[in-house]
Structure formats: structure tokens, C-alpha cells
Amino acid sequence: MEKRPFGQTGAHFPLLSFGAQRIVDEHNCTEEQAIQIVNRALDEGITYFDTAPSYSKGQSEERLGKALALHNRRDEVWIATKTNDRTRDGSFRLLEDSLKRLQTDHVEEWRLHNIMKMEELDQCLAKGGALEALIEAKEQGMIKHISISGHTNPQVQLEAIDRYPFDSALVALSAADHLVYSFAHEFLPKANEKGIAVIGMKVMALGKLAPWYEKALRYTLSLPISTAIVGMESMEQLEQNLAIAKNFKPMTDLEQLDFLKEIMHLANPDVLKWKSTDWVSGEWYER
Question: What region holds the NADP-dependent oxidoreductase domain (predicted)?
Fold first, then answer.
């Protein structure tokens, strides 16, 4: 698979990375299957794994930790996890629990999870806010890089990278996202200019782009990003994603335009729930 630089960190990753949110009971993936899927991904060169304590109440982190510990493969991977708490103290407690579940003494990347509104950003960056925990954790060697994520309004993430030199940003970059509050148009150019690693997510728009699976994945991988995480709950999904990524050819401008025309009807609040003003942060953390 093609490898790309991860911002200014010095790391490089394959263009396809692993979203670990779905290796859980909630998505009909057993622990045994999760361990097999993670190790198969590693065997195929995938080294970037994204998780969070809020994914199935810690089960995602726990299974990723078990999969790596069972075969002694922790040193082969870059782990990114998150805090959905907006305070320093609450975030530190989350990190300590995450490290226990992941069976490690550090993670490569820790990020502010799903900052939707300017008020949330203000809270995180204020005195006693979550960013203090990220900075202190880095100083203590508990994390190596500081990140932020957002699904909703690219203006919030643009403000964030103006106010703090984040190493990376995880943002919604499906083809459907292109049509409303577009991170591809509004956020990517500025992030690239600043040398910030950008990770694409929501590649299948919570399954709404499944009928155009290969096109959807090719669209996101064709953007000027460092890598894209795709949630995988079965070996079949992993193999499908690997096949597309290994044979990846960037979409031409004309191909992108034709694809966007095909899916334009999906640009509505029922499909792009994370772009709707009715979408609340708490609802996301239970998913």
C-alpha cells in the first residue's frame, strides 16, 4: 500500500488505517474475531489504530489491547485514543483508564473527541480545560502527540488550529460530507498549509455510501490527507478494504464530480446526522 507522511511527526502510514470502534459485541464481533482481525491488519502492514474510551464503554480499547498483548505486537502500532471530557481532571481519569484497557504505559496520540461547537472548544482550551491534560500528559510521556477531532462544523476545527499547534486532526471526509459543511474545502487546505496531519473518517457515512463502496473509499483516499480510518467489524470488510487500498488509483476531478452528482440526494439531515444542529455530543459517545 502507498504510504504517506503524517504531518510533521516524522511518521509515515499506509493510506488505509484501522478504525477500532466496531470490533465489539455491539457490532456482532466476538473477542476472538477482533483479535484475528487486528492481527491480520498488522500482517498486511496497517499500523495506525484509532479507538476511544466511549466506544462500547471501553470494549474497543480493551479488545485492541488484548489483540496486541496476546502476540506481543504493541511496538508495531501507533495507537490513537481520545477524551470526550472537556476538563483537565476528567480527561486525566479517562486516559488512565484507557492505558489500563490498552495494556500500555503510553499512546502515540491523544485527541479531543468530537469538538462540535465553539463553546466546547473554548471550554477545552480554558484554564482547567481538557487541553491542559493533553499538554501535561505529553510532558509526562503518557502520550506523544496532541490531536483534535470533529464531525460537524469545519470552522470550529479551523479556529482550533489557529489557537493551538495540534499535531493532527481527525475529521469527517466522506464524499457525502463534501456537500455540507465541507472539511475537504474549508479545513484541509489550511491544515496542509500548517503541516498538520489529517486523518479522514466517516468514509462510508455510517453505511449510507455502502452501495458505492469502492468509489466512496477511493474518494476519501484521493484527498490530500495522511491516512483514512475505516471501521471494520469482520474479516470480510478488512479484506475488501485492503483490496481497494492495494490497487488504489486516485479519482480524477471528473470522476469525483460524477460521483458527487450520484450521491447528491444524500445531503440531508437524516443521512448526515453529525452535520445537523439536532445532533448532540452525548448521542455520539454512546455509538
Answer: 16-216
96: buried, middle or exposed (CB in 10 Å: 19+, 13-18, 0-12)?
A: exposed
The pLDDT, as a whole number, for residue 173 is: 97
For residue 284, give the nearest of 182, 151, 183, 162 by alpha carbon: 151
- Helix 235-246 to helix 31-43 angle (10° resolution) is 20
Q: Coil, helix or strand for 149?
A: strand
Q: pLDDT tens across 69-111, in order?
A: 999 999 999 999 999 999 999 999 999 999 999 999 999 999 9
Instruction: Kindly state the helix (H) or strand (E) to which residue 124 belongs, with its residue range.
Output: helix 118-125
For residue 159, what are the contacts with CB-CB under 8 A and spacing of at least 6?
118, 121
How far apart CA 227 and CA 229 sit, in angstroms, is 7
**Nearest to 160, CA basis, from 134, 124, 110:** 124
Nearest to 149, CA basis, from 172, 132, 130, 129: 172
